[in-house]
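Q: What does the assembled structure look like for these inputs?
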Amino acid sequence: MTRSDDPTGQTPRSSTDQQVRDVLGGAFHGEGFDHAALVAGAKGRAGRIRRRRAVTTAVAAAVVVPSLAGAGWILGNRLVGPGAEQVEVAVATRSQETTPPSGPDEVARTTGAPDGEAATRAIEAPPWQPVTPPDPVSVRPDNPDLPNRVQIPDPRPVGVDLLDALGPPQDAAAYPRTVPLSDFMAGGEGAAVEPHSARDWFFYDGTNEIDQDTVQLTVTAWDDSAAALAAIRDGGAGLTSVWVEEDLSGGVPEPLPWPGHDDADHLLVGRETELQSGDVQQVGGALVRQGDYLVGVTVRAAPGDGGPTTLDEAVEAAAEIAQKSAENLAYLGPENPPG
Amino acid sequence: MRLFGGAAQRAEAEAYVEQAMPRLVGLAFAMTGNKADAEDLVQDTLALVITKWSRVREAEHLDAYVRRTMVNRLSSVRRRRAASEVVSHDAVTAEWSVPSVPSPERGVTEREAVLALIRGLPDRQRAVVALRYYEDLPDREIARTLGCTEQAVRSAAHAALTRLRELVPQTIGEEAQR
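A:
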């Protein structure tokens, strides 16, 4: 039967089916593809990707070392004599002009020390931010009716593969009524406890395509961040933010193990989300308390888009970004600088 | 995210690329309907495979993983092009009003005409058509490759074939039966 025989005017089903099969079944025959050249091309492109990564790392190192030295760091590496077990790295304090003001919950790192003594050194530079991250493409204006109480510093880490691949955030905002962990939480009703300040950054490719890798970094500032995170763990009772499932019913996701960070200040969650199209995305979420701040990161992974492909990888990426942002925040500000 | 490392793994990755190239360039051609785009797509896809080999090799279904990477790479390239290209209103509306079927009178073959029609399908439909008719995959495998349900695959295939049936001209249908 031809199209002219069909009262609908359409080409018959079997004819079209076979035509497509015939055409695509021999799709590349006779196209003259040079397989060897294509293999060489793929290897060449892979080499360029690796070199770009290497250059990014080298540039970060090249910037951070002079920056530290210029800021007054004196690296007094003192190698102890032969047979000594300890190699001590003495870090001089920065000059008064460049020392950031101490916050109420000053962060210190414990390093190995002889005789069981805990030697601490304050974090004196944002460890994951040797260069200033590029500005967001779009910044939503502040809401004059409900401004942030304090200015929250920008803790976006650089040198994270997923963020590097996504480029600068496409959107950013500063507004206190913000959920601490995007996608996993939503605004509730009838509760009074909420952040007094918040900032967020949204990384995506700039299109409305839903099937893509995205990262949302949110920093919320609280009067009592420890109580806030505890309430979040307990389901959000008393907070204006509540956990939501895909069907918007309430529920607390099962916390995932976070090796080295299984404590009250860290929370890791993940879930699969099925889109209306039937596509499945992996969503990882991480919350880290840093002083008066909660750093929330949600990674939404579209498999094969170049970033994470499994739930574990999405969760791992969220954890990496949240932890590095929190470590940057430890340097970047006192938790409640004057607004 | 882990970076690729180790000469042995690199050799393993490159061996995979050499072995998979003929089949994957065909799939890329089926998805793009264009030689230059196919060459670009397959090289981009396999470059990612090489650089992420330590992760890729752990995939339960290696070929499905690579095919999925290609499908997403295709969508992502098209998104970027769509975001950067400036297209006039006239050009867009002209495309709506005139089906993009080259006419046989202009000496265009049936094969080229069908490829042109497939090229005009939305990404997902085109990927489903390529995976079903070029790779000859069952719906379950296509669903795994695209990260969607079998129902979504069947729905996309149905929509694609319906669209093609509407557009494939009679002359091409007749030619196909010779």
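Residues 35-70 of chain A form the longest helix (36 residues).
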